[in-house]
Amino acid sequence: MIELNGSTLTLEQMKGIIYENEPIEIDTDSMERVRKSREAVEGIVTRGETVYGITTGFGKFSDVLIHNHDVDALQLHLIRSHACGLGDPFPEQVSKAMVVLRLNALLKGFSGVRPCVVERLRDLANEGVIPVVPSQGSLGASGDLAPLSHLALVLIGEGEVHYKGKIKSTEQVYQQLGYTPLTLKAKEGLALINGTQAMTAMGVINYIEAERILCQSDWIAAMTLEALEGIIDAFHPEIHKVRGYREQMEVAERIRILTSDSKLTTHQGEKRVQDAYSLRCIPQVHGASRQSVAYVKDKLEIEINAATDNPLILEDGNVVVSGGNFHGQPIALAMDFLKIAIAEMANISERRIERLVNPQLNSLPAFLSPNPGLQSGAMIMQYAAASLVSENKTLAHPASVDSIPSSANQEDHVSMGTTGARHAYQIILNAQKVLAIEFICAMQALEYRGEALASSAAQKLLARGREVVPSITEDRIFSKDIEALSKWLTSDPFDWSLKRIVGHTEYKT
Questions:
Q1: What is the spatial distance between Cα 221 and Cα 217, in angstroms, rounded to a whole number?
Q2: Contact (CB, 8 A) for 200 and 143
Q3: Looking at the annotation, which residues are catalytic?
Q4: What pathway or pathways are given for this protein in its record (predicted)?
Q5: Which residue ranges form the domains of the chain, and what is each CATH number?
Q6: Distance of alpha carbon 327 from alpha carbon 333, whole angstroms
């Protein structure tokens, strides 16, 4: 059970909720804050005060006064009119993260919603009733209005949901579970859609996936280093210590541990004096990507505990202030940084693939073919990897440098953070396939070198990999192998830390 209070949610807890279906509960003190902020909203309506989004219209309509008898209808019109999401839905895990993050933000007690709203969000997450949210249509300021409106539709019994592996109408699932649709009251519609929870939810999933593939990239790169008889001296601890980057030092240590008992790695001068950068600079490049991902983690752990709607009800309900916490710039910049970090990790992986298959760059059979000439082997795998990394270069263009005015120029600068988060996810998917290709090629190359000469870590990984993709003894449809291994890398519970490496049980990532 994970208790939410609006302030202490961690990415590790999000991982448990999203991937392991840990149930969530609401902190008692947080619910009291929710009640107090709701009382403030009801007082504003009763007194007929002019407060944005409660007794006025939205955006350019902020100067239009709404009469008391219309404040509930205002919220319904808001949700329906703003549900303009387009394109394919976000992955179900992202939409579930959206529900949890919206709930956590409301529990801070600055939004003015009734307790029944936060309770319904909790129940949706726990019951696995997850809104179907189109992934396109957000500008990333004024909040993720379009995507979050599709989330809010579910609370009022409209739209569609993921439920037990199928997409169904919300009305159908509500009837099945005995839920009654909510009638949104003053400010509640605005409180549900004014925020950064779509881009942040996508960012959370991106971070979790990026962290995993960065660990995998070290293992696979170490296997490639062995297959190419790489020079281990480049990973000497003092080289990395004198530069001073912690992440670089950690990657170098991981490579040393993974190859510690290898009979394939060499020393400078034995076969050549220096390796190419794609081998020699693994710590520098992988380490820099890890630095970037650490920056992303820091920003996400702030944002998942942030109040990002507008207006905010402050000082125990005595002050209501319109501000701009819905602007997604911090997450937009973080997602653009993440895109570059993962694209670069894939770039250097593709260069290692080239060194594995190019007979001019190694002493292995051309393209790792079982019969060079008659059979093409891994030739087109490198083409596929090159295509993916080239696509990543386009996707890595920063979304946050763009802006476009909206709402009759009232909202004249936006973050495009949700676009950046979506592109980061696609880069991660592409990078996963590039790693899968390097893994296939590295396994084949190690078998040519002699599996018994490889390190115990490489032998362990090779054995697991061969359960998914058999050795290349004849040309076949390799796209199936790439997809299968990519899926395995995503879902298999292989221990990518170094905790179980013999002689290094104390090491932790």
A1: 6
A2: no
A3: 52
A4: Amino-acid degradation; L-histidine degradation into L-glutamate; N-formimidoyl-L-glutamate from L-histidine: step 1/3
A5: 2-195 (1.10.275.10), 203-491 (1.20.200.10)
A6: 12
